[in-house]
Amino acid sequence: SGGRPGVLHGARSYMLQDKDGQTRESHSISAGLDYPGVGPEHSYLHDIGRAEYRPITDKEAMEAFSLLSRTEGIIPAIETAHALAGAMKVGNELGPNATLLINLSGRGDKDVETAANYFEDLKS
User: Fold this and answer.
1) Which of 8, 34, 59, 104 has the largest CB neighbor count within 10 A?
2) Residue 1: its pLDDT value, please?
3) What fold, for 58-123?
4) Rounded to whole angstroms, what are the CA distances from 64 to 14, 72, 115?
């Protein structure tokens, strides 16, 4: 979301760039998502209509992180929490009889310090 075709690290794909084609900085609470581009495979899937990508804020991702941790006892990776937040949006659009499959990849134990800092900052 917000990217346009460009060349990054020798591959043409969707990327964040300014009007002159220079790479723009990205931001995500998740180190694994803090990158200004996507792989060419994702660009291709988007172009042929087989994939849809939606933006998720840090706040939405961390709300999903907290919800899954509290309700299921599963601490997701923050990257996965972004997918959970997106799936909750899609689920609301599809309605109560829809079935969604979410792959919980990664472990949240690597993100405990980041999550603790995030939630502590909310208290201040």
Assistant:
1) 8
2) 62
3) Rossmann fold (3.40.50)
4) 26, 12, 12
The mean pLDDT value of the chain amounts to 89
Give CA separation, 111 vs 63, 82, 91, 108, 114, in Å. 14, 13, 26, 5, 5
- DSSP-derived 3-state class of residue 6: strand
Residue 118 per-residue DSSP state: H
CATH 3.40.50.1100 positions along the chain are: 58-123
Alpha carbon distance 75, 98 (integer Å): 25
Mapping DSSP onto H, E and C, the string for 21-89 reads CCECCCCCCCHHHCCCECCHHHHHHHHCCCCCCCCCCHHHHHHHHHHHHHHHCCCCCHHHHHHHHHHHH
Question: 48: which 2 tokens?
Answer: 């042929």
Per-residue pLDDT, 124: 72
Q: Which phi and psi (to 5°) does residue 110 adopt?
A: -75, -15
Q: Tens digits of per-residue pLDDT, 52-98?
A: 888 999 999 999 999 999 999 999 999 999 999 999 999 999 999 99
